[in-house]
Specification:
By secondary structure, this protein is mainly beta. It starts with 9 loop residues before the first strand and ends with a helix.
Amino acid sequence: MRELVVENQEILMIPQNYKFVNKGRVKEVRAGDFTLELDYEPDGILENTYCEFFTQTSHGKLHFDSYAKEINGKTLVIASPAKHKFLQRRQYTRIKYMTDLEMAFDNKSYKISTLDISAGGMKFKTSENLNIEGNYALALPLTEEVSISCSFQPIRIEKAQEGYTVSGQFVFNSSADRMFVTQFCAKRSVEIKNK
């Protein structure tokens, strides 16, 4: 684990109740564990209870399950996991996400059919020509209970046989919203691979 987790590395920690998702930085790495300094109080995180961890490394997006051996305020001692896996080389896990949505810009509504999403952005098809300079308001449904409001900024618009294929980036209202989308995509990616 020493080669994968290094000091000052940012790690996303997701307990079983993902409403208590947290993030922090690695402070020290030892043979059997590492110390993680969280950004927020560890609400919903219990000692000896497994959580999911995600971090970006030079080898790609790293995922592993582990638990806090000790919790002292925002400082946690995390047990080195028995196994880990790399999800992909992208900074954010990208998944197939096919649904019909609406975006709004300049008092006009645009119908889109999504193809894939990640915490960085999405790709979709539309019959309408979008303004590449636009900042489009969007509600992104993740579950029946959770929908994330964010903005979408087009980066690439390609003319297709029927309309346009658009790729771009999300601008979230908070880092918690980005964490929810990161966690949603990572979980779906694991579910798809395990089918």
